[in-house]
Write a structure and sequence with these properties.
single chain, mainly alpha, 3 helical TM bundles of succinate and fumarate reductases, 9 helices, 81% helix, 0% strand, elongated, binds protoporphyrin IX containing FE
């Protein structure tokens, strides 16, 4: 049984399916996260309330985190394996690209955008997940009695730095690109090729990628515009 499982995992198709499935879990998380983040635009109560709700049942939160971390690790690990295999079988790779019109550029950017997204996530956790949500970094300019604005204050103050905001915008554009090419690859992996739908899938995944990049970017853009146009943040 376990030898059979090992052989199954060794096949290129199964590796690609694992990359696709774990990628899909990431897509689900990203869509939920971009929707949750948009609450920042509605003020401190909205986003802090949402965060409190997510942390209300720590066991559930940790199960979700474990699934996410496992998905990320498996996604990266099997992507590396598949990439190495593809390199070793260059002829097959060109044959596949010729068949399904996938450009070399799209494939190449997947590995770079993927790497950037991976390191961005590590940086991002140190930004908003690990820090104290009641400390001095959560106090907004102009707030009475140095009152803490919780997670809202932390995110807000963080995006007051223009270089950091620009870095976030670059990173979320990479997330959008990675996601749109990833979804197209996913359909190839599950063997869904149909002249009628391929163009529609490409368009839909590009629109989704653009919406994700735009949705995430709205937060730093909003903070910068609001702060540098209207002055004090409260
Ligand atoms: C402007 C863009 C973004 C903003 C403002 C943002 C904001 C946040 C905030 C405030 C948290 C902490 C939530 C809490 O502790 O309640 C968080 C956590 C997190 N974010 Fe983001 N995020 C952004 C983009 C992204 C992107 C693009 C990714 C992934 C590709 C991502 C992945 C994560 C992960 C994995 C966590 C940890 C979740 C956990 O606590 O388990 N974020 N983000």
């Amino acid at each position: 049984m376990s030898a059979k499982f090992g052989t199954l995992l060794g096949t290129s198709v199964v590796k690609k399916q694992i990359v696709a499935l774990t990628g899909l879990i990431g897509v689900g998380f990203i869509i939920g996260h971009v929707a949750g983040n948009s609450l920042i635009l509605f003020g401190p109560e909205a986003i802090n309330g949402y965060s409190d709700m997510l942390h209300a049942v720590p066991e559930l939160l940790w199960i979700a985190r474990l699934i996410l971390v496992a998905s990320l690790v498996l996604h990266v690990y099997f992507t590396i394996l598949v990439t190495l295999e593809n390199r070793a079988a260059r002829v097959d790779r060109y044959a596949l690209q010729a068949n399904h019109g996938e450009t070399n550029w799209a494939k190449k950017t997947m590995i770079y955008t993927g790497l950037l997204v991976f390191f961005f996530i590590l940086f991002h956790l140190t930004d908003f997940t690990f820090p104290d949500k009641t400390g001095p970094d959560t106090v907004l300019t102009g707030s009475e009695g140095e009152a803490s604005y919780g997670l809202y204050g932390l995110v807000w103050n963080s995006f007051l730095s223009v270089p950091r905001s620009l870095f976030y915008i670059l990173a979320v554009c990479c997330v959008g690109l990675h996601l749109s090419h990833g979804i197209q690859s996913l359909f190839q992996t599950i063997g869904f090729f149909h002249d009628r739908y391929t163009e529609k899938i490409r368009l839909a995944s590009n629109v989704l990628g653009a919406l994700v990049a735009l949705g995430f970017s709205l937060v730093p853009i909003f903070v910068i515009l609001r702060h540098y146009t209207f002055g004090p943040d409260v």
